[in-house]
Amino acid sequence: MNTEEKKPKSRRELVRTMGQSGNYWYAMEESKNLKKGKSLEVIFWKSPIALYRGEDGEVRAIENRCPHRQLRLTSGIVQGDEITCQYHGWTFDGCGKCTGISHELGKGKAKDSLPNIKVNSYPVQEKYGLIWVFPGDPALSETVKIPAIPQLDQEEPWEFIPIDVKLDGHYSMMLENVCDFNHAFLHRKFKPFTDPHLLGTRREGDTIWIDYETDMSQSSAVKTAGEKKGAGLENMTLWYQYPYQGSNTADKYLHWLFMTPIDENHTRCFFVFLLGPLEIPFINKPVPKFLRKTVIALANKFYIIPLLGEDTYIINEEMLGQERHPDIQHLEFNPIVGEFQKMSIEKWEEYVHTEALRKKKQKDDKERYVFTGAGLTKKELHDYNTMLEEKEEAGL
Ligand code: FES
Ligand SMILES: [Fe+2]
Q1: What is the DSSP letter of 352?
Q2: Best mutation site among 64, 70, 90, 105 for ligand 1, i.e. most ligand atoms within 8 A of its Cβ?
């Protein structure tokens, strides 16, 4: 954290200044939006990343910055499995290495002795219709997994259509919104949960579980297409499995929320709703397999997207409140909110800590390039390393 900035006075103020740990896989784009031979920019906590799909169909993720004059590589062109900057034609591979220069410096004999130029690169993979990037320490990307979604991993996966929400708000606000059912009033038109009662919450490692008792049969969607009009849906379990969020109702209706923090005021959210038993209205017969995708598209369009629209609207309002009254404490009565903030702060601090150590090690090893995870400023890591050195000198 920048120590020269005004110090946050509360846990809530502090968490709103922080990103999420880069040492996890983040859903950054829908696979279908990145065509062969094309590139696009995504941002992980203020760090621009160029995603491009080579002509071989593979996606690569590298820093979106040409080291020559700092132009966006995504304004360039993809050729083969490399990307070339639009200005002077420097070419980079998926590891971020400069493999070609279009002018004299890279022509003729010079071609075989190109200067050692490199930008940061990030592990990337595609799963569940999404492009996932590991913005932190690449060495950890092998052991840290994308969350397993059994309903999508089985032989006959459930159909789903991801919903892409561009939120004008800090990621923690979305988290707090989704898991705090005290905002049933906001959704009085759609009634996704009625008369919620928090049964309990517990933390296990980096996961916080929340159990609610609530009446879901009042929901307009459940009444229309839910199994037995929602009878038997009284309990919902939600989780904040860092850095992901989800819910499960009777193993029949589930959702996952994958967020990518862009900055203090913007977050990219991908919702995956898994709708189990669906019935045809009035005749109450199961929706046949061939129609399920259409019904899911209709459910997204007429129920889930408008419902999420209420949440994004209200988070905008919350942002405005925060901007106007930054120093006034909230009157927060839901214990989940504080628990979430605590874990989010812990995980961000852990990220700054491990990346500061990684940076120090690369410097000590006199590496040609020192690369650290996306989302961290040089100053943040420098301050942290200075603090570690001072502590060491003082024998603490
Ligand atoms: S600015 Fe990219 S090649 Fe010159
Ligand atoms: Fe909501």
Answers
A1: H
A2: 90
pLDDT bucket at 6, cuts 50 / 70 / 90:
low
Superfamily designation of domain 150-339:
START domain (3.30.530.20)
Closest-CA residue, ligand 1 atom 4, reads: 88
**Cα-to-centroid distance, 149 and ligand 2 (Å):** 23
pLDDT in tens, 198-232: 999 999 999 999 999 998 888 888 877 777 777 78
Which residue of 64, 65, 73, 88 sits with most ligand 1 atoms within 8 Å of its CB, as the best mutation to test the pocket? Answer: 88
Half-sphere exposure of 315 (CA within 13 A, CB side): 26
Superfamily of domain 25-138: Rieske [2Fe-2S] iron-sulphur domain (2.102.10.10)
- Which tens digits make up the pLDDT trace of 104-141? 888 888 778 888 999 999 999 999 999 999 999 999 99
- Residue 366 is given by DSSP the state T
Q: For residue 55, what are the contacts with CB-CB under 8 A and spacing of at least 6?
A: 36, 37, 78, 79, 80, 81
